[in-house]
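A common beginner's mistake is to predict each chain separately and then try to dock the pieces by hand. The better habit, illustrated here, is to supply every component at once so that their relative placement is modeled jointly.
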Amino acid sequence: MASLHIKSLFLNMGKTVPKNFERFNSSTARKLLYTEYGDPLEVVKLVPAELKEPQSDEVLIQLIAAPVNPADINTIQGKYPSKPPLPAVPGNEGVGKIIRVGANASKEFAEGDRVIPLSSNLGTWQTHLLLPKDCVLKLPRKVQTAQAATLTVNPCTAFRMLRDFADLQPGDTVIQNGANSACGQNVIQICRAWGLRSVNIVRNRPNISELKQYLIKLGANYVLTEEELRTNDLFKSGLLHKPKLALNCVGGKNALECLRHLDNGSTMVTYGGMSREPLSIPTAALIFKDLKFKGFWMTRWTKDNFNSVDRFEMLSELISMMTSNELEAPAHMMIKFDDYKEALKNTLNMQGMIGKKFILDFE
Amino acid sequence: MASLHIKSLFLNMGKTVPKNFERFNSSTARKLLYTEYGDPLEVVKLVPAELKEPQSDEVLIQLIAAPVNPADINTIQGKYPSKPPLPAVPGNEGVGKIIRVGANASKEFAEGDRVIPLSSNLGTWQTHLLLPKDCVLKLPRKVQTAQAATLTVNPCTAFRMLRDFADLQPGDTVIQNGANSACGQNVIQICRAWGLRSVNIVRNRPNISELKQYLIKLGANYVLTEEELRTNDLFKSGLLHKPKLALNCVGGKNALECLRHLDNGSTMVTYGGMSREPLSIPTAALIFKDLKFKGFWMTRWTKDNFNSVDRFEMLSELISMMTSNELEAPAHMMIKFDDYKEALKNTLNMQGMIGKKFILDFE
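With all components supplied together, the output reads:
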């Protein structure tokens, strides 16, 4: 690190950097790359990467950790609407530390700063990232690696869905399916932090009581299997207000069961379709109950609100929840970058049952 | 009429009305009534009605015409969410002439004025209606009987759906299914008046070219059968912008075909479900195309906006369209009040294929 520091002094003084610095770094730089869409286990290869010095407005980041999100898998398969031009480095978020600072970035950043990229689809599955200084956000030390690496997708998705689709007041109820998903875990915790009551639907499974305990420890008010939802009298009993918001990442019959409990005039937000079945909405629910059905896609929101006050307020509030232990990282497993195939395979096989995030570990 | 005029003079002077006026009117007053929900042909009976003199703030209306809407049938069957207390007089809209004016109403109304009731579910299938003066709207003479009788449901539904769910500009496209319905015919004409281009989907039928001609004469830009929509290249060819609004009264596969053509971020408004199949929405349409699905129910809108500026602006604009021949009455058939069973039977058997409104004729 000492030599890097000297190098950035060189840069700041506008001098030429000695050649041996390049060689030293380049030998360690590697990236995952795919040149065609297809089976991630086939098309993604680990290859050497070239390191460049930061321009005046740039910083060079050495990655610490980057998660494998289901959307990354779909992107590599060519099944996702955002299709990066090929060849492409996968990966949509992550955390790293700054190892070089461009001259114009030195007021805001220093070597060793822990930062996250603010743009989507930069390709975080590589050891180093060169980014414009306006595309990175410095994090407080207290944010843990797994929290930082997974900050910009799931917690932001949960935050926006709870904030933008209903005027929720403390004491109001939110219902969600796929509650054990990484996003669902964030929904539970943000609901708790905001005084909202969450009703959480999960599929039945062998370890159901363990899963229920885990979600209740996160702050879930109720955790029900699909069968229990169908036969429950939670809302009729008066224990809870009818939900004013439903978050759906499953679709099919499960979503239908959820929407049946919604209060008149409420909204169901769809952000996933794990059952691979369409949403089926009875006409009467639209006309007479005035239910509304919308979708949410974090990628679009980020694109539309890249430099907005809303975005920085959201990131600031989420980071504050993380440092005050109100928002834990999702259940996860760190996997060495070299063992990336294991992370891909596990995510491919997950099918929403395990609810564990696999995070590439570069250290 | 002369005697009635004398009577209202009596009333205005606060004097007692001679008994013989009551007897004269009561002998002609009749109403349709049902005392239990069920088959309209069984439970609806024509019975004598009692006439009362208007209170100071009231007017007495002699009905001229009142339509049989599909929702009236469903209400009588007990299948509709608004359940009037029984016994009830059916009928949700109509036009009449004022035959008595309460003292406090005489500045605004005179005998002979043609008026429509402004409230829903008043029970218009009767020869006379006694209403508070604030619940009636006086119409210009130029509005025809069939237009006036059907003003508050279908034209208002079409108006609000085109106004409240998308920021449409002249040249923008609207797609609707069930385009031959009474509401669909209003949608076509209001689109033409506002410079919107309408793509109208109808089911194939023996007289399809006749129906297409009729709708194109009303102002439809395109009329397609479901099959033609599936194979058309209207939107790909660049002839038309992609629709920014879809109006759905069918559901099922037809609605799915319509939503496939919508521009990103657009809304489908459901106001009926003639196919009796739910709306089936692919997850990707919600998440990646950002399509929104809402419902519209005129009864709720009217209740929520009874005395609003929006409501009177809408009625005023619709009446103006009618007097300037921009908005025709829907295809209809007048049926004598005494033959009400024929109107009920025809509406029951219609199943959306004929697209003709049956209007009870009291004259």
